[in-house]
Automatic annotation (TrEMBL), chain A:
Membrane spanning stretches: 36-58, 192-213, 234-252, 288-311, 323-342, 374-392
ABC-2 type transporter transmembrane domain span: 186-391
Protein name: ABC-2 type transport system permease protein
Keyword Transmembrane helix part of the UniProt annotation: yes
One Gene Ontology MF term: ABC-type transporter activity
Bias (Basic residues) ranges: 411-421
Pfam families tied to this protein: ABC2_membrane_3 (PF12698)
Main subcellular localisation: membrane
Topology versus the membrane: Multi-pass membrane protein
Stored InterPro entries: ABC2_TM
Organism in which the protein naturally occurs: Erythrobacter sanguineus
Localization terms from the record: Membrane
From TrEMBL, chain B:
Lineage: Bacteria, Pseudomonadati, Pseudomonadota, Alphaproteobacteria, Sphingomonadales
Gene Ontology MF annotations: ATP binding; ATP hydrolysis activity
Organism: Erythrobacter sanguineus
Domain ABC transporter: 34-261
Residue ranges of the TM segments: none
Keyword Hydrolase among UniProt keywords: no
Name listed for the protein in its UniProt record: ABC-2 type transport system ATP-binding protein
Family: Belongs to the ABC transporter superfamily.
């Protein structure tokens, strides 16, 4: 071995970014190729699959159990007139009208008692109409009576009119949007985006908590601390976990896309949520998605830097677990602050949520959904990046002081700031 | 601090390296690899290191000798920039911030640390990467080093699958893979069996032969005595002596061992008052006037000299004289504990 040959030509140290890259690369690959990561990826899919199945079954049961059929127990003529009126009005009122069905038991029994029939829990009718068109009587529970008395009255009135109903045609003149409707519909997008950002950061940023425990337990931290600055260790670890998070989001995103492609109708039927009907954000979907990714990265780095520092103070996995509860509560508070300000654009509280680094990505993503101004995002991202750097620097300093027991004189002072050594006697040569 | 600082060149008749046939550059002509002045470090109000001064010339093998808890590791950690001193200055190759020249330094900490799931070859390459070596180059050099140390078969095995000794060797190779100019080893012999200790000694000598400065801490005197050109004796956070091993030994006068036929006689008055009987022998420090006047008096007094030898003091004697009996006893206890640990 010729020890000095390499050192002569090569720079004497790694830059902070190069050092962070060495750490990030190792951590990223170590996590990615661990068995635990597979379970981590599958973890969130289990509740989605189980929830989907349960929702599907539950929806079907509910559809079967909750009837919107109204039974007809009037004279045959009145029944027929009511059915005809229902057919006439269906194009205009659609789902607002009940499905009408003649009660067979009533047709064959002149003394049919609708009240007794319902109380005996026979049939599967929401309510039963008796009496005549002029004086219809609706029998059912309080809730069903409230729901159907209006439509039944309308149908009876229509059936009574001698002439076939000719309803005036409404001509339609659509406008692209209006300020009121745009804002109100986009709030839905803003809320959904915030919720998604929160769920992802809560799910993923917690991983960072235990990130330095292995190094501390295995004493690797000594080797790292001797070779590269602690800021680079922190930064490398953060970016490694961000990379792991993007892999996770990619996998989950693909799975979600696959599920949507296969069963979008079923998902819409079960959840009542249609992604395609989600109002477009103010900045447009492509930019909104880009901003979503960037704000996720920022939220992750900000929370991650804080968690890494907190976790670095812990000595064991048990301590990390104990810390995870207050950390989750803190995440919730940050989210609530940002969520609360969605409906208060331009207020002091919204500005505070934007200025406070931890809630800033959440508040700004909501803003991207509601407001097309772009420069605010550039400013917010610069501010958030600064905050990330400050948190990493502060975290690494705290780690050096509290865990590595460093501090005091720090780097050697230069010039007039140099502190003379104690008993500064010149060394004997 | 009353530091008895001596340059390594001071009254050094023959360094170990010279004894081993190495080409030694005169110490006074060499630039300093490490220079520390007045280093102070306290933990929770207790001074772990209290005004340490150390000068290590480039290319030297230098030992920091002291019992457990004396402040050896804290001193090394300050020299490496892992922790900053509360007071004092340190310079490594003239730099105030050791991280600025991290590429030139290799460090083996006392508490060995490797990622258990990493393969041996990857662990070496990773440690090289921390010091600026590309992973490709690190793997190539790592494979070569493992082969050279007969661990080629372990290159693809995870650290957790290796024996303790093998894992320690892997870490040492990781410390050297980037070919540093300064190697800092904290208790490198701790936990190694006699064979591996011998191998490590050879490795340290080979490094010094290549011009690498090696500084290591130990509580085993014979490692320091056999290997080191210079030592810093540390006890209670202070360094009462830093200088050459030879100069340390020279602080204690040589001991005379005398065996005589006669047990009594007037010749006894010629002996120094420190003379003590130890079995058949009388033992006393060599008189300042030398041995010739004493011999004359013994012959004239008809002592009947059976044997007379003059023995130079060892580093252990020097340690006792410099650091005190209590520190020496603790050092011996630490050595014995370490030996027991190694055997276990």
């Amino acid at each position: 071995m010729t020890p000095t040959d390499a050192s002569a030509a090569i720079r004497p140290r790694l830059s902070a970014l190069e050092a962070a890259w060495v750490i990030a690369r190792r951590d990223f690959l170590a996590v990615l190729f661990s068995r635990a990561f597979l379970f981590f990826l599958l973890g969130p899919l289990f509740p989605v699959i189980v929830g989907g199945l349960a929702g599907s079954i539950g929806g079907q049961v509910q559809r079967e159990a909750v009837s919107s059929e109204v039974g007809l127990a009037m004279s045959a003529g009145d029944n027929a007139a009511l059915l005809a009126a229902s057919q006439r009005l269906a194009p205009q009122l659609g789902g607002a009208l009940p499905v009408l069905r003649q009660v067979p038991e009533a047709a064959s029994d002149p003394g049919f008692d609708a009240r007794a029939f319902m109380e005996a829990r026979r049939g599967n009718y929401a309510a039963i109409v008796t009496g005549s068109l002029a004086a219809p009587e609706l029998v059912g529970t309080e809730g069903q009576l409230r729901r159907w008395s209006g439509p039944v009255s309308l149908l009876a009135g229509s059936a009574l009119s001698a002439e076939p109903a000719t309803l005036p045609r409404v001509s339609k003149l659509a406008v692209a949007t209006s300020a009121a409707s745009e804002r109100s519909t986009r709030i839905q997008t803003a809320q959904l985006a915030q919720m998604l950002l929160f769920l992802l950061t809560m799910l993923l940023a917690g991983m960072v908590l235990s990130n330095l425990v292995e190094e501390k337990a295995n004493k690797i931290i000594e080797i790292l601390a001797a070779a590269i600055p602690m800021d680079a260790v922190f930064m490398g670890k953060l970016f490694a976990m961000l990379g792991v998070s993007f892999v996770g989001i990619g996998v989950w995103g693909l799975a979600a896309w696959g599920m949507w492609s296969i069963g979008s109708e079923a998902i819409i039927a079960v959840t009542g949520f249609d992604l395609a009907r989600l109002p477009a954000p103010a900045v447009g979907w492509p930019l909104f998605i880009v901003l979503g990714v960037v704000y996720f990265a920022m939220a992750y780095l900000l929370l991650g830097a804080l968690f890494l520092t907190i976790g670095a103070m812990a000595n064991t996995v048990r301590e990390v677990q104990t810390l995870s509860m207050p950390v989750t509560m803190m995440q919730l508070m940050v989210f609530f602050l940002a969520a609360y300000t969605i409906k208060q654009p331009g207020s002091g509280l919204e500005l505070a949520a934007i200025a406070f680094p931890l809630s800033s990505p959440f508040a700004m993503l909501a803003r991207a959904a509601l407001d097309a101004t772009l420069w605010t995002h550039a400013a917010a991202l610069a501010w958030q990046a600064l905050a990330v750097l400050a948190l990493v620097k502060g975290g690494s300093l705290l780690f050096r002081k509290r865990v590595m027991k460093s501090g005091g004189a720090g780097r050697a002072r230069k010039g007039w700031m140099r502190r003379p050594p104690r008993n500064a006697a010149e060394p004997a040569e | 601090m009353a530091v008895s600082e001596q340059n390594l060149s001071g009254n050094r008749p023959r360094s170990h390296n010279q004894a081993a046939g190495f080409t030694a550059i005169p110490a006074d002509a060499r630039p300093l690899a490490i220079e520390a002045r007045g280093l102070v470090k306290s933990f929770d109000g207790t001074r772990a290191v209290d005004g340490v001064d150390i000068s290590v010339p480039e290319g030297a093998i230098y030992g920091i000798l002291g019992p457990n808890g004396a402040g050896k590791t804290t001193t090394l950690r300050m020299l490496l920039g892992i922790i900053d001193p509360d007071e004092g200055v340190r310079r490594v190759f003239g730099h105030d911030r050791p991280h600025d020249i991290g590429r030139l330094i290799g460090y083996l900490p006392e508490e060995r640390g490797l990622y258990p799931s990493m393969k041996a070859i990857e662990a070496i390459a990773f440690m090289g990467a921390l010091r600026g070596l590309s992973l490709k180059e690190g793997r190539a050099r790592g494979a070569e080093l493992l082969e050279r140390h007969r661990l080629g078969h372990a290159a693809g095995r995870q650290i957790r699958q290796l024996s303790k000794g093998m894992a320690q060797t892997v870490q040492l190779l990781g410390t050297l893979v980037h070919r540093p100019r300064l190697v800092v080893l904290d208790e490198p012999f701790s936990g190694l069996d006699a064979i591996n200790q011998g191998k490590l000694e050879l490795m340290i000598r080979a490094l010094a032969e290549d011009g690498v400065t090696v500084i290591f801490s130990t509580h085993v005197i014979h490692h320091a005595e056999r290997l080191c050109e210079g030592v810093a004796i540390i006890a209670g956070g202070k360094v009462p002596y830093a200088g050459s091993v030879e100069a340390a030994r020279d602080r204690i006068p040589a001991q005379v061992r005398l065996e005589t036929r006669a047990r009594e006689g007037a010749w006894l008055s010629a002996l120094p008052k420190e003379a003590r009987r130890n079995g058949d022998f009388l033992q006393f420090p060599l008189p300042e006037a030398g041995v010739e006047p004493l011999l004359r008096q013994l012959i004239e007094g008809e002592a009947g000299i059976l044997s007379l030898s003059i023995e130079r003091a060892g580093l252990h004697d020097a340690f006792v004289a410099i650091a005190g009996e209590a520190a020496a006893r603790q050092l011996e206890a630490d050595s014995a504990a370490n030996l027991g640990e190694t055997r276990a």
